[in-house]
C-alpha cells in the first residue's frame, strides 16, 4: 500500500468548503483503488489565523510543509484584511519559498457546460496556460516614499532573470511538444515594455531552437485576450509572465464556462520541495458559508495532484466522474444550475464508487 502525505490548507472563504469536499473525493478514490492511502494533515492557516496570531501561517510553516508529498490549497482573501497581506503571507510565501516556478493552468469546456462565447465549438477551447510563478511583476521589488505627501511615489519593478525566463520557456516547450498540435504562443507586451519583454522574446527564440518539433509564435497580451474570445480554436499552449498569465487564465476560465471549474498546479519541477495544487478562484467571500461554491475546480485540481504523486489511474477516474456529473447537469449556480456544493460532491463520490 502506497502512502502519500498531503498537507491541506483550506485558508479563506470558500476554500473552507471546497477543500473538505476535495478531501472526501480523494478519500473515496483511495478506498476505490485499494492501492494507496492519503495521510492528510490539515493546517489552520489563513486570515482567521492572522487575526489570532498576526501571521498568515506559522513562522516555521515552510519547514513543516517540507515533509509532505503535496500541498492541497484552497484560497486566500478576506474582506477585512488587505489583499497584499493575505496573498504574500500565505500563497506567495509557499510558491516562492518552494520555488514552484511553473504554474500550469489547463482549460477546456467540460461535457455539459457551455461557453458564454457565441458560436464556439466546445472542442475549440482546449488550452494549457503556463504562468511564470516566481518572479516578473510578482518579484516584490519596489517601495514607497513620502507617504501622504503631494510628492508621494510608489515603484513596482518587474524582475526577469535569464535563469527564470529560460526555465519557464523550457517547461512550456516541453508541454507543447507533448500535445497533439505542438503549438506554443509566447505572450508578452514587448512593443511597450522594451527591456524585460524583449528579453522574453529573445529567450523564447533561443529555447525554441531546441524544440524544432514545436511551432511557436509571439503575441501581445492585449491581442491575446481578444484572440481568446474571437478565435479560441487557434490557441493551444500559452506561456506568459506571472501577471499576464494570471489575467489571461481568469479570462480562460470564464470562456470555458466559469472560474469555478478552473484548476491549477504550482510545480517545483525539480521535486526538491512539495508542489501545491489549488483551484484558480479566490476566496469568494461574497458566497462563503452559503454552500453554493462550485467544487469542480478543486476536484480537477485534486486530479492534477494525484497525477503528480504517481496515481494517474485515480486521476483519470476522478476526471471521468467529474465529466459524468457535469454531463448529467448537476451544476452549481455559476454554471446556470441549482445544485449545492454538497450535491455535486455526493454525485462525484457516487460516480467514483459506481
Ligand atoms: N486559489 C487561488 C487564490 O487564492 N488566489 C488568490 C489571489 O488573490 N491570487 C492572486 C494571484 O495569485 O495572482
From TrEMBL:
<keyword id="KW-0464">Manganese</keyword>
<dbReference type="GO" id="GO:0000287">
    <property type="term" value="F:magnesium ion binding"/>
</dbReference>
<dbReference type="InterPro" id="IPR011829">
    <property type="entry name" value="TTC_DH"/>
</dbReference>
<keyword id="KW-0560">Oxidoreductase</keyword>
<feature type="domain" description="Isopropylmalate dehydrogenase-like">
    <location>
        <begin position="5"/>
        <end position="348"/>
    </location>
</feature>
<dbReference type="InterPro" id="IPR024084">
    <property type="entry name" value="IsoPropMal-DH-like_dom"/>
</dbReference>
<dbReference type="GO" id="GO:0051287">
    <property type="term" value="F:NAD binding"/>
</dbReference>
<dbReference type="InterPro" id="IPR019818">
    <property type="entry name" value="IsoCit/isopropylmalate_DH_CS"/>
</dbReference>
<dbReference type="GO" id="GO:0050319">
    <property type="term" value="F:tartrate decarboxylase activity"/>
</dbReference>
<comment type="function">
    <text>Has multiple catalytic activities. Apart from catalyzing the oxidation of (+)-tartrate to oxaloglycolate, also converts meso-tartrate to D-glycerate and catalyzes the oxidative decarboxylation of D-malate to pyruvate.</text>
</comment>
<keyword id="KW-0479">Metal-binding</keyword>
<comment type="pathway">
    <text>Carbohydrate acid metabolism; tartrate degradation; 2-hydroxy-3-oxosuccinate from L-tartrate: step 1/1.</text>
</comment>
<protein>
    <recommendedName>
        <fullName>D-malate dehydrogenase [decarboxylating]</fullName>
        <ecNumber>1.1.1.83</ecNumber>
        <ecNumber>1.1.1.93</ecNumber>
        <ecNumber>4.1.1.73</ecNumber>
    </recommendedName>
</protein>
<comment type="pathway">
    <text>Carbohydrate acid metabolism; tartrate degradation; 2-hydroxy-3-oxosuccinate from meso-tartrate: step 1/1.</text>
</comment>
<dbReference type="GO" id="GO:0046553">
    <property type="term" value="F:D-malate dehydrogenase (decarboxylating) (NAD+) activity"/>
</dbReference>
<dbReference type="Pfam" id="PF00180">
    <property type="entry name" value="Iso_dh"/>
</dbReference>
<dbReference type="GO" id="GO:0009027">
    <property type="term" value="F:tartrate dehydrogenase activity"/>
</dbReference>
<comment type="similarity">
    <text>Belongs to the isocitrate and isopropylmalate dehydrogenases family.</text>
</comment>
<dbReference type="InterPro" id="IPR050501">
    <property type="entry name" value="ICDH/IPMDH"/>
</dbReference>
<keyword id="KW-0520">NAD</keyword>
